[in-house]
């Protein structure tokens, strides 16, 4: 994936989050807080764990392959949202992480 594609995916992710904020306002009169977003992410991260267990035949669950694919992508989406809400440039952070880790493993 080239940089432009990542930029587009980030933009689309943030637009989707704006639409969810509108739904939150409709249903609860205000947007979720950063903490609520983090808790939602943690819930989805836990579901990745359960679906991985199902993938390994350690937890029986119907349609876990499709849900695992969905939840892995949703977790990436949450990272983009959480980075944006905390003022972190996710692309820059990922680059720094990869470079640092590559340097450690040389």
Automatic annotation (TrEMBL):
It comes from the Bacteria. This is MazG-like protein. It comes from Chryseobacterium fistulae.
